[in-house]
Amino acid sequence: MVSIELIALDLDGTLLDTHEQVSEVNRAAITAALAEGVRIVLVTGRGVEAPSQIARNLGIALPVICCHGALTKDVQTGRTIGHIPVPITYAKPMIEYAETNGIDVAVYVEERFYRVRGARRYMSDMRSPEWNEVDSFRDLPAVAPTFMRFLGRDAADAVRQRFARLPLHFKFETWGEFEECAVTSREATKRHALENLCKTYGIEREKVLAIGDSRNDVPMLRWAGVGVVMANAEPDVLRSIGHVTSGNDDDGVAHAIERYVLKREYRERSA
Predict the structure, then answer these.
(1) Is 62 a residue whose pLDDT tops 60?
(2) Is residue 200 part of a domain?
(3) Which residues, other chains included, contact 271 with Cβ-Cβ below 8 Å and sequence gap of 6+?
(4) For the residues 62-68, what does the mean pLDDT come to?
(5) Which of 147, 167, 185 is the last residue of a domain?
(6) Last residue of a domain, one of 185, 204, 226
(7) Residues 76 and 106 reside in one and the same domain
(8) pTM of the complete model
């Protein structure tokens, strides 16, 4: 088996449990991998703030890949390494349509989420300092947004019906009763951002372990030398990836790291 030199970790549904915490078992496996000289990168659909905090807390020095691959940020220096925004030609009419028709959308601009004042809060993290309210999206800087999140089933359906033919990347995800559509540039994907980062560090794809649970993780998992899907993934995601680990509430990340990176010696030490 080829030795793994880099581990790419999705956050929600993968490294984070249902309480959005990193378990002590996962933390120990990450610490052990770092001690062996293995690089680790967080790859997430979230904005910059949360993955940067998690990376610092875990002692991960590599840049974070966030916003579904649209933004890569150096956690240590704050330098932007890669940024592929949604062309404003497409973003502007989508945002205007959503506001005019009362469709819930969050717009990520200059590393902050913006929503119209009084819009529904779907998740607990929508109260964090990263989230801001405006009276109208017309108040935002006139720049291309990094990405947009259409929140709720009605919003996702509106995207399907009205904008699906635009040359953009539409990432539909479902968690229980909640559905969301994240919209990025067509070139902005987790897989492409990870591939570019690996080129920077001279790491071959065969030496990459990628772990995730969502549909937008699948291209990244297929690209990596070893792609591992979480047991809590949707059935279609599970069917598309050969390697499966346990769920995010059962230390699935640690089990995958033990098996494919630290191997037998670590399992014996941790037994």
Answers:
(1) yes
(2) yes
(3) none
(4) 97
(5) 185
(6) 185
(7) no
(8) 0.92
